[in-house]
Structure formats: C-alpha cells, structure tokens
Amino acid sequence: MNIFKYIKKVIVFALVVFSLSLALQSPSYAAALEGKWKLTSLNNSPVPEQFNITVAFDPNESRITGNANTGFAPVPYFGSYKSTENTVELLGPVIKPLIYLGEEGEKYFSTLNSAESYDVKDQKLTITDYSGKKLSFVKAE
C-alpha cells in the first residue's frame, strides 16, 4: 500500500514540473510566420500573373524554403532565419541556383535577404526590409 502513495506523489510531482515548464516557456514568435506563403505583391506592386513565388518558414528548424517560378522553371531556395515578436532576420543570403530570374525575381531575393520586420494579420504576411521595401504574401494551402 505504501508503494501506491509513492507512485501518486511521483505522478503529481511530474505533472507540476510539466505544467511549470509549459508556463515558463518563452513565446514562439516565429509561430506566426510558420507555414507556406504565396507572394502577391512586391513593393506594393502586384506580381505578374506568370510568377509563382512561395516561401515557407519552419520555426522548429529556423529554416526558410521556397520556390521561385518567374516564368521560366521553378527555382528552389533555402536558408536560415531568426525572429522575435515582429522582427525577422535571415542568417546569411538564401541559397539558390545561380540563375537570373528577371528584374522582379532579383528584387524579391534582394528584399528577402535584407528583411528586417514582419507583420501577420488575417492570413496575410508582410515582410519589410531595412529600406522600407515590402513583400506581401497570402497563406498558401
């Protein structure tokens, strides 16, 4: 009978520790970025219809991945990032094949690589770079 009291105390202790660990965790700001997004405008100008540029943020791995199809062939890219409540920073430039993607494609990567802040509202993501250029996305899938 004494063993059951011991087991009960261990279970209660484990539940308390688990609850405290959840309560004391810092918030995951990157969770707002999580998922796949489709580019809708580049610096407040709609992207051409033939463009299909996506980006996906994985807060567990701190990775960014995506495809840029600017009318030629899809070009995969990836990189690492860190974020806080409203800032995002790529840890080095995104890695992509050395293919020229046209003026708009190059503007996209230039703005993405110099990202400074983000805002997520109503399934829409806006990334702003240090000079005020913006990338606007909608949640994909």
Please summarize what this structure is.
The protein has helices at about 1-25, 100-115; strands at about 35-40, 45, 50-60, 65-70, 75-85, 90, 115-120, 125-130, 135-140.
Structure description:
With 141 residues, the chain is of the alpha+beta class. 25% of the residues lie in helices and 39% in strands. The protein contains two helices and nine strands. It has helices spanning 2-24, 102-113; strands spanning 35-42, 45-46, 52-58, 63-69, 75-83, 88-90, 115-121, 124-129, 134-139. Strands 1, 2, 3, 4, 5, 6, 7, 8 and 9 form a nine-stranded antiparallel beta sheet that branches. Strand 3 (52-58) and strand 4 form a beta hairpin. The longest helix has 23 residues, at 2-24. The protein is elongated. The chain starts with a helix and ends with a strand.
